[in-house]
Amino acid sequence: MKRLLTNLKNIWKVEELRQRILLTLGLVLAYRIGSFVILPGINYGALESASAGSSDTQKGIENLLSLFSGGGFTNASIMALGIMPYISASIIMQLLGMAVPAVQKLQNEGESGRKVINNYTRILTIIICALQAPSYLKMYVAQKGALPADASSIWWMQTILILVAGSMFAVWLGERITEKGLGNGISLLIAVGILSRLPGAFIAEVGKSFEGGNLIKLLLEVIILMLIILSVILIIQGVRRIPLNTAKSVVGSRSVESQQARNYLPLKVNASGVMPIIFAQAILTIPMTIFLSATDSKGEAGLVQRILSDPYGLWYNVILVVLIVVFTYFYTAIMINPRKIADDLKRSGGFIPGIRPGEDTAHYIDDRVTRITFPGSLFLAAVAIVPSIAKLAGVNDAFAMFFGGTSLLIMVGVVLDTMQQIETYLLNRHMDGLMEGTRVRGRRGPNETSGF
Predict the structure, then answer these.
(1) pLDDT tens digits for 51-68?
(2) Residue 257, class by beta-carbon neighbours within 10 Å (0-12 exposed, 13-18 middle, 19+ buried)?
């Protein structure tokens, strides 16, 4: 406890870090307030009554869609669409970067190209929001009987504009947090929205356990949850260290032989982080939003709705697993460029023992990345379907989502990333880090290379 208080004091002493934390908290507060501001004209009482009478399957879909909007989806708030349209737009732009030469050229232009791509991403986000907003109002709010009785064309237009503006405001908040705050803003907003639902979900599970007189089951659930969190941390922090040798070093103006200084090239087991599962959920969210209450000519649920209507169902989880594995390889290919790493090593005089510099090194690194990506993708897929297993074991829907999937990975990833940034600020000012003396470190080891 004494050490914790000392670390908190050190954090407060660093002026830049203190300002970033306060700014981040302020922007997060603005996002949370926005998720409770109801759209004008919406009958919230009718919305709440209809939601209370929804089936378990319907509630499961609503809870899943609400994860990315901090509850704004079920509240019919001005931020009901959340930041998922922006994530969907980012996916589309990254796919275009692999298929369209013009977008590839922008990606290779550095900072200027990145700004242009960001502008295109925002425009595409507005288009996606404009398509999703009417579907949300017709197939969710209207089905709940919460639309105003005299909803005119003007009301529809202004409400759609409000939903688009609310989603773009959430994106703006995320970008400001990334630029001037602490952590990745988009991921942080999603994590805050998820964490806001944890107390209520846990209290509901405790009440259910007390009613059934099964406190041992509740204790086992908490223990299993802690073990799952531990395994997620280990995989996120796990690296495959490839040994490097530096045959020569420069002393003054001369190049002399060194004593075979050895470093390591760390390749993360989960280099793509939480993005594959976010991408997979984003892809599934679009048809879920559009076909939430769609029926065919006979009044029966359509094929898409039957497949995606149950987030705990077999086909939903099969599709989710396939998408996660695909996006893990896709995002890892974007994050890690073996040829660039090989070129950087060659220029710095480093090499992998037994491997020729240049093309052979690139092939070797690519092979190792491919090998460790496969188990990493399977782990992400396994974590994604754990909530379905928890639901089958009798855990309530809201609490089951925290046993894995997007909820757990985002929370753990965001917490680790934020702690690592705080750790960096403290270490740069020669203070003890938050994770000093732990095995989960936010900084590189003394014999790991950086900059690749």
Answers:
(1) 766 655 566 667 666 777
(2) exposed
